[in-house]
Each structure stands twice: as structure tokens, then as C-alpha cells.
């Protein structure tokens, strides 16, 4: 009787250890969401801070540097966010689509 209880306990322990080795615990926070939280509220230039911006059709995104995964734009000014309806910005959802593509803008 004691032998079967010991065997059952050892088998259960071995199976638990094997399961942990096969299925590693993961953090529930997405890496992309974490990097987005560090992006700030104003899009920076795709050519500053080692961003090396990707000019894909899906949008502008830093692909390297400390802001990898963050949105970026071309000709942005971190000290000034212009109106979405001026200077050829053609802003949609507070992001320029025309001139200054990818830069933050404000609806007026």
C-alpha cells in the first residue's frame, strides 16, 4: 500500500515537471503593447533616434532603436503638433496622411 502511494506521488511529480518543461509560462502582456505604451503621445521622426522607419502601406513604424514598434512620421516636430486640416496634412484619426505623413496632428 505504501509502495503504490509513493509510486503515485513520484509519477504525479514527474508529470508536473514534464508539463512545465513542455509548456513554458508566458507573460500575458504583449511585447508589442508594451513597446506601444513607451511610444509617447506624439509621433517622432522616422529618421531620428535610430528608428529606421518602415514606409509600408500599412503605416509608418520604427523598425529599430529604442522606439522599435512605435509609429513615426516624416518631418514631424516634437515641439509642435499642427492642425489636421492645414499644410496638406489631410489628417485622419489625428495622424497626417499627406504632407508630414505619419506625424501627429490635432483636429480643430
UniProtKB/TrEMBL annotation:
Keywords: Signal. Residues 1-21 form the signal peptide. It comes from the Eukaryota. This is Antifreeze protein.
Amino acid at each position: 500500500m505504501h509502495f503504490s502511494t509513493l509510486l503515485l506521488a513520484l509519477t504525479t511529480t514527474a508529470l508536473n515537471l514534464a508539463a512545465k518543461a513542455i509548456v513554458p509560462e508566458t507573460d500575458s502582456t504583449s511585447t508589442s503593447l508594451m513597446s506601444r505604451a513607451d511610444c509617447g503621445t506624439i509621433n517622432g521622426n522616422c529618421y531620428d533616434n535610430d528608428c529606421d522607419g518602415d514606409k509600408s502601406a500599412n503605416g509608418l513604424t520604427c523598425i529599430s532603436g529604442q522606439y522599435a514598434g512605435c509609429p513615426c512620421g516624416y518631418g514631424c516636430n516634437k515641439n509642435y503638433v499642427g492642425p489636421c486640416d492645414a499644410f496638406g496634412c489631410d489628417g485622419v484619426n489625428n495622424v497626417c496622411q499627406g504632407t508630414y505623413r505619419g506625424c501627429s496632428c490635432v483636429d480643430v
